[in-house]
Design goal:
Layout lengths: L3 E5 L3 H18 L2 E8 L9 H11 L4 H15 L13 E9 L2 E7 L5 E8 L2 H8 L7 E5 L5 H7 L2 H8 L3 E5 L7 E5 L4 H17 L3 E7 L5 H17 L4 E7 L2 H9 L3 E6 L5 H6 L3 H8 L3 E5 L12
Parallel strand pairs: 1-2, 1-6, 2-5, 6-7, 8-9, 8-11, 9-10, 11-12
Antiparallel strand pairs: 3-4, 4-5, 7-12
Length: 312
């Protein structure tokens, strides 16, 4: 289900939890993993990655972006997903090289023949993350959030929210991820909900978490339909080799999802297309949950590639 995962890293203390879970997920699913740092251009204009790296190496100085990626590499190494040589050093497929303007990487050998990349991009953070995941082999972005709320959020958004609502692949927004005791899947009968169920089964199996399916009936008349959604979801979970607890609630969908999820779930939702104008004036369930929820949220998007192999 997950073949290639990217973790954007910036402030490393906040990224430790994501690196732990991302490494665990990559190891369990035999996925490729990219650690991505986006360097914002200075007022003087974009720097050249290759030239900067060469010059600072000559001077014995390491730029902050390289230092953060190296520290992230050490954290991932401690998780045991890097292949090491007889001296305990990482096995490189290639050392740092500039791939094109504003993009460079170190390519390491992971366990299970996986690829581990330390990537450096230059540019606006959201657009560079979205540019990275234009590669159709990516299935998942694992990203943290320190979002704002209210009108300022509507105007400016946050990195995590903007990526979650625009990414062509699934996004897992890490918030209290270490407290997760189960995966809570909102089921609605839509195909987007079915995709959330499928990805939740893969996530649950990799992270050894139970699954709870939640259907919400906004009115008493919709109770029977909500029960049908639960039964359909359970059949899909069982077809994928899993089991699930069924939860039926009445009330406002967004409020009920937030209250039921609390802090100790990963809440999984399918992404339904919505225009920017609708999102600004009306909002949608995903945005409300990202804004007010206290748990991690998986926004599930179908895979774009049929090839199940790893990229080189």
């Amino acid at each position: 289900m997950f073949r290639k995962i990217v973790i954007p890293v910036s402030y490393l203390p906040a990224a430790k939890q994501m690196l732990h879970w991302g490494a665990k997920l990559a190891g369990q699913t035999h996925s490729d993993l990219t650690l991505l740092y986006v360097a914002t251009p200075q007022q003087a204009g974009p720097i050249n990655i290759r030239v900067t790296h060469e010059k600072m190496t000559e001077w014995g100085v390491e730029p902050p972006s390289f230092r953060i990626l190296r520290e992230a590499e050490e954290l991932v190494k401690a998780e045991g997903i890097l292949q090491l040589d007889d001296q305990g050093r990482e096995v490189e497929r290639h050392s740092f090289k500039s791939l094109n303007e504003g993009l460079g990487e170190v390519h390491l050998q992971g366990i299970n023949d996986g690829n581990i990349r330390l990537r450096l991009r230059e540019g606006p953070v959201v657009s560079e993350i979205l540019e990275e995941v234009e590669d159709p082999s990516y299935d998942l972005v694992l990203i943290g959030t320190r979002g704002t709320r209210g009108f300022r959020r509507n105007l400016l958004g946050t990195v995590a929210q903007d990526v979650a609502l625009q990414s062509p692949c699934s996004v897992l927004i890490a918030k209290n991820l270490d407290k997760a005791k189960a995966i809570l899947v909102g089921v609605t009968g839509r195909e987007s909900s079915h995709e959330a169920v499928r990805q939740s089964v893969a996530l649950a199996q990799a992270l050894s978490l139970p699954i709870r399916l939640l259907a919400i009936a906004p009115t008493s008349e919709s109770m029977e339909r909500a029960q049908t959604y639960l039964e359909d979801g359970l059949r899909l979970v069982q077809a994928l080799g899993g089991e699930a607890e069924l939860v039926l609630e009445a009330g406002d969908p967004a409020k009920t999802l937030i209250q039921t999820a609390g802090e100790d779930h990963v809440l999984a939702l399918g992404r339904t297309p919505i225009s920017l104008m609708q999102r600004f004036f009306l909002g949608d369930i995903s945005q409300k949950i990202l804004d007010k929820g206290k748990c991690s949220v998986l926004i599930a998007v179908p895979s774009r590639a049929s090839d199940s192999g790893h990229s080189d």
